Amino acid sequence: MEEDRTTPDGSLDRRSFLSAAIGAVAGACLCAKSAEAAEPAAKAADPTAKKRKWGMVIDLDKCTGCQACTVACRAENNVPIAGPGETEKDRAIFWMDMMTVREGELPDLKVQFMPVPCNHCENPPCIKVCPVKATHISEEGIVAQIFARCIGCRYCTTACPYTRRYFNWYEPAWPEEMKKTLNPDVSVRPKGVVEKCTFCHQRIRAVKEKARAEGREINDNDVRRLPACSASCPADAISFGDLNDPESEVSKLERSPRAMRLQEELGTRPKVIYLREAKWRE
């Protein structure tokens, strides 16, 4: 016969109460250990969960200034066409722009071409001034923009020392014959928001999904020429990859003595690295 462990008022006695409490604690600890054991398994099930830091290296010695990168970027990311009127007001939008640096005077004039996307800084001033957190750094180092959250205050465009953010002053429109070229994987931004380069995050997402379906990790060959600007460059001047992977092409190029970043003295730590033009001796 089971012993009655209740007191006259119907509550458990001290011994029974302590036994029940110890059992509850033991059960909680067991559940916690089970959760901890399941977490690594969940991470292992996703081969793309590795910590990455996306970056880009642009070799100025290879760039010919053909502007294939600017055209490909515009087509891939549905960048609005400003038209002559807005362009005269300095309202043209270029996620990937082509700057020119002139040295000397005619007839000894030398021109250096420099493709310039968003620098995706590790310490970006733009995100610090946004009052609605419409811009942020992703876990993989991309300075992302949430277009639906942007209120168009343009604080970020003022704070960016590289002038790589653009405000949509007009309702985006394309000629009828060009509407079929719009990329369905990229949203069309409305009037009144700020937009910028995203390192073609839609292509990164597609590669991740493919690698996950194949049960493998993303490798350097998957992403080396992934962004539209890099894929279209006929001179292979633009490389893309994981800066946290010491064996990736961008990591090796980052260690080159020719490597530099724009305005490094500002402490923004851009993840777009340039390789200076090599100085050849006759």
In short:
30% of the residues lie in helices and 15% in strands.
Please tell me about this protein's structure.
The chain is an alpha+beta fold and 282 residues long. It has a single domain (54-275), classed as 2-Layer Sandwich (Alpha-Beta Plaits). It has helices at 14-45, 68-76, 83-88, 125-129, 155-159, 201-213, 220-223, 228-232, 249-254; strands spanning 54-59, 97-103, 110-116, 135-137, 143-145, 166-167, 194-195, 238-242, 259-260, 272-275. It has a four-stranded mixed sheet with strand order 8-1-10-9. It has a two-stranded antiparallel ribbon with strand order 2-3. A hairpin with a 5-residue loop joins strand 4 and strand 5. The radius of gyration is 27 Å and the shape is globular. The protein starts with 13 loop residues before the first helix and ends in a 7-residue tail after the last strand. Mean pLDDT is 85; it is low at 1-7 and 28-49.
